[in-house]
């Protein structure tokens, strides 16, 4: 397997994190319930990939709000892509503090598992910690560090992000990630828009930049070859439909990635429903 494709899948996941299985993003606009609340999330996806038979996967997760400012979640996910498959467990959590015009959310997540590419096994590990400051209920600034350790690929990918809530129905976000260690060789710029409605909500975004390192190698004593890093271009759109009578939400996300000519299209369906007592 080309592990660059697996890394790209891991890099792309946070771009539409609120609609992934864990469903927790402190920058998102929907209101967190003021009482203890439990949600179960089910997710399924299918992919096409240039020159292969594609792949797919699914996940199941549980997310618990201890109160309006504290949440935690666990999940398990399995994915296949061409000849490779991997399974991992996830944990995440977030705590928000502050009042009035300045609130701060500290969050963390870890994804640990393993997989194989035919006869060869590999370890899969991604961890992240971050902080988001929200000011005047509209402007948010994010700092995050994400660590990757997948087979021979490893390194840290810090990210800075800015979000602005233009009103109760429109949120725009931009982010920039730049790897500072290991062999990720990643520099990604991302932008996203969320439109929240009572009957249906929409999301869309793009990401682009270098997604693997430039390789410098000597073919002979006199010839040096410079192999350029892979370039990523990605776009995605999604729609969320609340189902109040079922106390649930359904989200469908379509994602397209072009990694230096290797093209991948993914369709993901998420179903999140509340369990336990019904809030008054």
At a glance:
The protein has 280 residues and is mainly β. Helix content is 4%, strand content 67%. Mean pLDDT is 82; it is low at 18-34 and 216-220.
Question: Could you characterize the architecture of this molecule?
Answer:
- By secondary structure, the protein is mainly beta.
- It has one domain (3-275): Porin.
- It has 1 helix and 16 strands.
- The strands form 2 sheets. It has a 14-stranded antiparallel beta barrel.
- A hairpin with a 4-residue loop joins strand 14 and strand 15.
- The longest helix has 10 residues, at 3-12.
How is the topology of this model organized?
Blueprint: H1 3-12, E1 37-49, E2 55-67, E3 70-81, E4 84-97, E5 102-117, E6 120-135, E7 139-150, E8 153-167, E9 170-178, E10 186-195, E11 201-211, E12 215-218, E13 224-227, E14 231-243, E15 248-259, E16 262-275
Antiparallel strand pairs: 1-2, 1-16, 2-3, 3-4, 4-5, 5-6, 6-7, 7-8, 8-9, 9-10, 10-11, 11-14, 12-13, 14-15, 15-16
> What is the helical fraction, as a range of percent?
under 10%
Classify the fold: give the CATH topology.
Answer: Porin
Distance between the termini: 51 Å
What would CATH call the architecture?
Beta Barrel
Q: Overall 3D geometry?
A: globular
Name of the CATH class: Mainly Beta
Instruction: Kindly name the structural category.
Output: mainly beta
Which superfamily, in CATH terms, is the homologous superfamily? monomeric porin ompg
Number of helices: 1
Number of strands: 16
Give the biggest sheet: 14 strands, antiparallel, barrel
Q: Which terms would index this structure?
A:
single chain, 280 residues, mainly beta, 14-stranded antiparallel β-barrel, 16 strands, 67% strand
